[in-house]
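Example 3.2
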Amino acid sequence: MRQGVDVLFSTQAQLSASLTSARAIGAFERKLATLARVPLLIIDDFGLKPMRPPADEDFHDLIAERYEQAATIVTSNLDFTEWDQAFPANRLLAAATLDRLRHNAYCLTLDGESYRSPKQAPTTKKPALAKQVKSPTS
């Protein structure tokens, strides 16, 4: 982005919804072509929600169109061995899509504390309890 490259950031769920909407109004091919031309597409949360047909096929078509033509970054909390879970209805389609994503790819595994960890409540000193004073009648 700092070098002037156009970038599109989307979650997988948002991307699938966008393609599904385009399909519903007859604009799928135009939407697919637009997404295929974006120089850098960042797809966040891959596999967070399993894709159902035709979303799984649409996602594959997008990756196939971009394959070796444009840069794609995919983030996921799944290990590579679990990526087929994102395509529960078609494991073969999963293999074909992931094969394209991983070919000539740089794979980075980040391990560590989440930036979304809950904040710790600030520690406050409890006020000293007032001493009980006995009344003369007690």
